[in-house]
Structures are given as C-alpha cells and as structure tokens.
Write a structure and sequence with these properties.
Layout lengths: L2 H7 L13 H12 L10 E6 L2 H10 L11 E7 L11 H19 L3 E2 L7 H8 L6 E9 L13 H4 L8
Antiparallel strand pairs: 1-2, 2-4, 3-4
Length: 170
Amino acid sequence: MDLYQAIKKRYSCRSYQSKPIEAEKLARILEAARIAPSAKNLQDWRFIIVTDEKKRKALAAAANEQMFIATAPVILVGCSNNDDAMRCGEKIAPIDLAIAMEHIALAATAEGLATCWIGSFYPDKVRPILDIPEDIRIVELMPIGYPADAERHGNREPMEKIVCYEKWKF
C-alpha cells in the first residue's frame, strides 16, 4: 500500500478482532515511530506496548470507560520524558508524540491493521496500571489490531475552507 492509500484508508476503528498482531508487523510499526522527526532531535517519546488482557481492560476503564479499547490485542501508550517548550511557546511532548503516533497509525494501516487515537483518559488512573513515574507525561493511548468494524470516514472540510495562500484569508 502506498502512502496516499494509507492516508485515505486510515480511520478511527472502534472494534477489533481478537487475532494477535504478528511480531514482525509490530516491529515495523514501531520502527516507523522510532524514525519520526522530533523537536531538537530529542526523540523524547517512550512507548509502552500492552498486550495483557487484564491491563487492557483496566486501561479501557481509565479511558472514560471506552471498553472497545480493550478489544484490541495491543494498546500502545505514548509517553514523554520531556516538559520543555519550543521557542514558539508550544510544548514539545504532545507535538513529538503526535508525529510519532501518526507514523504508527499510517504504518499500521499499511500493514492491514487499524488504530484509534484516544485522548479521553485519566492519566492518574493509567499511571498505576503501568507503573509510570510521576515525572513522565502520558500523552496518548492507541489501540492497534485487525479491524472488526467497517471502515468509516467522517466528512472532511473542503480544501478552500482550510487552506489559503500568502496571508490569512478566512
């Protein structure tokens, strides 16, 4: 699958088959994250791969009771060991993690898998499940697996509503 096909095919999956992810596929997906760009080349992301069913259920409960998350054979927890900001004032951690995790989402799609970005969770409930230290930011959760639902794509804004040239024209 080429990049543009993966971009168009990726969607937020909310139901997964119980089929495990092959180790070589997961390794390729994680490699896509490892080589992602990061501010100052800090590579400040840290990923926890959760396959244990009991922990997946606990994470789903900590994610605002979104129990569909636990149906995925893998839940990836994206963390950062950095609290710095870029010169523009934006925090590095959520931006670096977003870039790396979108690499993961696209790589997973190219491998025939599906993902869903999960930002609705309680870090104080996730932290003890995975023994994450207090000084580490928990930025995102992402279930990964073979989809059990039908591919769904929401409506997208037309190009002229999101892009202008040379100056602000909205």
